[in-house]
């Protein structure tokens, strides 16, 4: 009997440890399945999987302090439904995402017009995916027509109804208010969103590109008028854009339960160094001329800033090579390593590119404290909250 117990127990596999408990994972010489490629989508032989197998490292988290469970990696549909991507290729990307365990799809009329919602609705109907198995987030405010934008009650309700018709779905999981409207009272916005949810057209609502002050104002109005509060803020976050995500959004989560959906690791533009090397430089990292009174002074500062950015990008690229991945994969893993990020949106124009991005999840256990400190040393941009100013000093 004792031998049978040993035999039975030897066949049982131990549960996979949480990545949170593997921070001090060692073995910097071990090679992961990154192919040591420095270009996304370089593996042309990748086949679309026909059976759902969750990608190693993919986790499911509550969005904000709601009960909605989403994958820690979501799929942004802006590049998928861009003009250069065919319908067949877009469908292949979405099927790969679902087979990999991704359950969140983010849409925006401002990014890809109405095509994204129409095409995604067709693909969902064709694939026959159960409505309970995926999460749809779409944005309102922007429109393809300039006179049809804003956050009036009329525009909110009409936008939601139009999105439902294009998606061919009975409801949308999360409606994100894309940018606050200074011309519309906050009370009207929160009451309209509460009406949309009470009608069953949406389950939750959130914000995108809102400041912490605007989010807090919306929350206060929701409490005052007994309306449903927002559960998530969608904002840019990567190695060169950190202040809002690391200083203020965690405070929003702890105080009012607003979670954080991030985008940005792939929002890099490819630049040429003087030596001819290709480096990834983040868009929006350079100062504009409006930030200086002197055009000559601005040009000098811009040249110095470009040089510093290239140096940092080169050091990050060298570190990624040591870890056996490329710069984009390191950027994705670095963003996911930060606890406030509950869902990170990735885009792709081919299944191969999405596969390469998802390989970054395997890098998470290797981002030990030492590696993270080395990245901080290279970036030198860790945000610090400014010291409080005494009211007596302002008098």
TrEMBL record:
- Residue ranges of every copy of the NADP-dependent oxidoreductase domain listed in the record: 73-379
User: Which terms does the record give in the GO molecular function aspect?
Assistant: oxidoreductase activity; potassium channel regulator activity; transmembrane transporter binding; voltage-gated potassium channel activity
One GO term (biological process):
regulation of potassium ion transmembrane transport
Protein origin, superkingdom = Eukaryota
Among InterPro entries, the record links this protein to: K_chnl_volt-dep_bsu_KCNAB, K_chnl_volt-dep_bsu_KCNAB-rel, NAD(P)_OxRdtase_dom_sf, NADP_OxRdtase_dom
Family per record: Belongs to the shaker potassium channel beta subunit family.
What this protein is called in its record is: NADP-dependent oxidoreductase domain-containing protein
Which source organism does the UniProt entry give? Answer: Anopheles atroparvus
């Amino acid at each position: 009997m004792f031998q049978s117990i040993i035999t039975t127990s030897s066949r049982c596999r131990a549960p996979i440890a949480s990545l949170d408990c593997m921070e001090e994972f060692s073995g910097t010489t071990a090679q992961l399945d990154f192919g040591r490629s420095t270009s996304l989508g370089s593996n042309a032989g990748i086949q679309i999987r026909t059976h759902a197998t969750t990608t190693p490292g993919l986790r499911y988290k509550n969005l904000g302090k709601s009960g909605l469970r989403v994958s820690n990696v979501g799929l942004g549909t802006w590049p998928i439904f861009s003009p250069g991507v065919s319908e067949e290729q877009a469908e292949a990307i979405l099927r790969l995402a679902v087979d990999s365990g991704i359950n969140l799809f983010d849409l925006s009329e401002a990014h890809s017009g109405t095509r994204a919602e129409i095409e995604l609705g067709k693909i969902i109907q064709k694939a026959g995916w159960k409505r309970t198995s995926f999460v749809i987030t779409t944005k309102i405010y922007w429109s393809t027509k300039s006179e049809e934008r804003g956050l009036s009650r009329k525009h909110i309700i009409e936008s939601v109804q139009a999105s439902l018709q294009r998606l061919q779905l009975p409801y949308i999981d999360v409606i994100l208010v894309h940018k606050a409207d200074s011309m519309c009272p906050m009370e009207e916005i929160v009451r309209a969103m509460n009406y949309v949810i009470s009608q069953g057209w949406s389950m939750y609502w959130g914000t995108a590109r809102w400041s912490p002050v605007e989010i807090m104002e919306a929350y206060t109005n929701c409490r005052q008028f007994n309306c449903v509060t927002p559960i998530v803020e969608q904002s840019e976050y990567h190695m060169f854009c950190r202040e809002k995500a690391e200083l203020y959004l965690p405070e929003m989560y702890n105080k009012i339960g607003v979670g954080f959906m991030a985008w940005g690791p792939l929002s890099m533009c490819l630049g040429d160094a003087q030596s001819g090397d290709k480096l990834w430089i983040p868009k929006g990292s350079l100062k504009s001329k409006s930030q200086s009174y002197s055009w000559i002074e601005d040009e000098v500062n811009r040249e110095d800033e470009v040089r510093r950015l290239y140096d940092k990008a080169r050091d990050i690229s060298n570190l990624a090579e040591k870890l056996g991945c490329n710069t984009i994969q390191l950027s994705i893993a670095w963003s996911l390593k930060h606890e406030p990020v509950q869902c990170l949106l990735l885009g792709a124009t081919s299944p191969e590119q999405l596969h390469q991005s998802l390989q970054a999840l395997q890098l998470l256990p290797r981002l030990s404290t030492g590696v993270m400190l080395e990245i901080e040393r290279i970036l030198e941009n860790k945000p610090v909250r400014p010291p409080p100013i005494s009211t007596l000093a302002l008098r």
